[in-house]
Specification:
Layout lengths: L10 E5 L5 E6 L6 E3 L1 H10 L4 H23 L6 H10 L4 H7 L3 H11 L6 H5 L15 H10 L1 E2 L2 E2 L2 H12 L6 H19 L10 H7 L2 H7 L7
Antiparallel strand pairs: 1-2, 2-3, 4-5
Helix pairs in contact: 1-3, 2-3, 2-7, 3-7, 4-5, 7-9, 8-9
């Protein structure tokens, strides 16, 4: 039996106007491209991503990849390349935004578009607040990355309630109504979690253990990348 998440589409080289080369993966059925894992790390370097943000992004990507594999095996239509790339780059603008105080999700979307990454730009744009959640009982890459990010506090896997408590402690007193908006966002994510894990082979509480087991198909897809395998 061939697991869907063991299949890795061919890599090609894309020459950019910046005179560097980025490894890209084809997105099935379209002419658009999705950045490879190596290309994502190159972009992290280019935008001077802080080490702690990079560590966080790697854990989010591992969770998103695992959930993506499970959804594929459950019959969902999910691009594992898009899930992985968007998860790795979801905080691509955060280092700069720590100084500028701009919306790092929106700035991340702009960075994706500036680098011709239209396929993952909408996913990056909604990783903080999911604006267009599917209502047909199916799941897209947006839901996967949005949820995976909520399960990682710094570089540790935590429950949604633990992540909410941490965010409220840091940001809850920074503006009128902000605490309620944060809580409402996490309530939306909790509802998503309940629906999502009905299709997965493990419970939400077992996520860290399941990831630690590191299924062979995940390692094979990642090609032995030390940071992600």
């Amino acid at each position: 039996m061939v697991f869907p998440c063991m299949v890795m589409q061919g890599l090609v080289i894309s020459n950019r106007k910046t005179q560097d080369s980025r490894l890209m993966t084809h997105n099935s059925g379209t002419e658009k491209m999705v950045p490879s894992i190596n290309a994502c790390f190159q972009l992290m370097d280019r935008y001077e991503m802080l080490d702690n943000i990079r560590e966080h992004s790697i854990v989010v990507a591992r969770i998103a990849r695992l959930i993506g594999c499970e959804l594929l095996e459950a019959g969902e239509t999910i691009s594992l390349e898009k899930v992985t790339a968007a998860a790795l780059l979801h905080d691509i603008a955060k280092t700069a935004c720590l100084v500028t105080k701009k919306d790092h999700a929106e700035e991340g979307r702009k960075i994706c578009l500036q680098n011709d990454l239209e396929e993952i730009a909408p996913i990056v744009a909604e990783h903080v607040v999911l604006k267009n959640q599917r209502t047909d009982g199916r799941f897209s890459e947006k839901e996967v990355v949005y949820y995976a990010d909520k399960r990682v506090n710094h570089h540790s896997i935590v429950s949604l309630q633990e992540r909410l408590a941490s965010i409220l402690e840091r940001y809850g007193g920074n503006g009128k109504g902000l605490e309620q908006r944060i809580t409402d966002n996490f309530n939306q994510c909790k509802a998503l979690e309940r629906a999502l894990f009905q299709k997965l082979s493990f419970a939400a509480e077992a996520l860290a253990l399941r990831l630690e087991q590191n299924p062979p198909q995940l390692v094979n897809y990642l090609g032995g990348h030390d940071d992600l395998a």
